[in-house]
Specification:
The chain is mainly β. The protein has no helices and 14 strands. The model has no long low-confidence stretch (mean pLDDT 86).
Length: 180
């Protein structure tokens, strides 16, 4: 299994035991309990700050990817109870919760470029509230261009958004060749 996130007590971990299954692992006892099972492979799972919700990305049959939010409860929520947040055919990754859990940041190619977007959420239901909005447009370098999708990520702090960018530069040199 792979560790995806940590519960605040540091004794329980959110792990993927298979590409389609999220589990809660008790680090002291080794006991696992199911958080959710997806119909397709999922990626980038993150617990909300209150650990009552989990967001993740899952591919869809039509080739798009979607960000979802599901409640963390026993028994696990059925897929029909999951909340759709965003869809994209190009780029969609790294959903991250704001510190209060009422905003979800993510990277999307919805405007043709990999940019950072935000989606306000209803505090109680976590359903989208209003339209998604651009947080940071990077339509030129430095930016995500040239980075593998797996390296395109975000980190959130109380008053900061951290985004790794890459800048690719090159030079062309010419020289006259002597014919001696």
């Amino acid at each position: 299994c792979a560790v995806e996130d940590f519960f605040p007590d540091s004794k329980r971990l959110l792990v993927t035991s298979t590409p389609r299954r999220l589990e809660r692992l008790d680090a002291e006892t080794g006991l696992k309990s199911q958080v959710l099972t997806a119909p397709g492979p999922l990626s980038d799972p993150r617990l909300s700050p209150d650990c009552r919700w989990v967001t993740f990305i899952m591919g869809k049959a039509d080739g798009t990817a979607a960000i979802w939010i599901a409640p963390v409860k026993d028994p696990p929520a059925a897929a029909r109870d999951w909340i759709p947040i965003a869809e994209d055919q190009r780029v969609l990754n790294s959903p991250q919760w704001s510190p209060d859990g009422n905003l979800l940041y993510y990277i999307s190619g919805r405007d043709g470029w990999s940019c950072v977007w935000g989606q306000r959420l209803n505090p109680a239901t976590k359903r989208p509230h209003a339209q998604a909005f651009a947080v940071m447009h990077r339509h030129r370098t430095p930016g995500f261009t040239g980075m593998p999708r797996s390296a395109r990520t975000l980190a959130i702090a109380a008053d900061r958004l951290f985004v790794p960018f890459v800048e690719i530069r090159g030079s062309v040199w010419t020289a006259k060749v002597s014919s001696r």
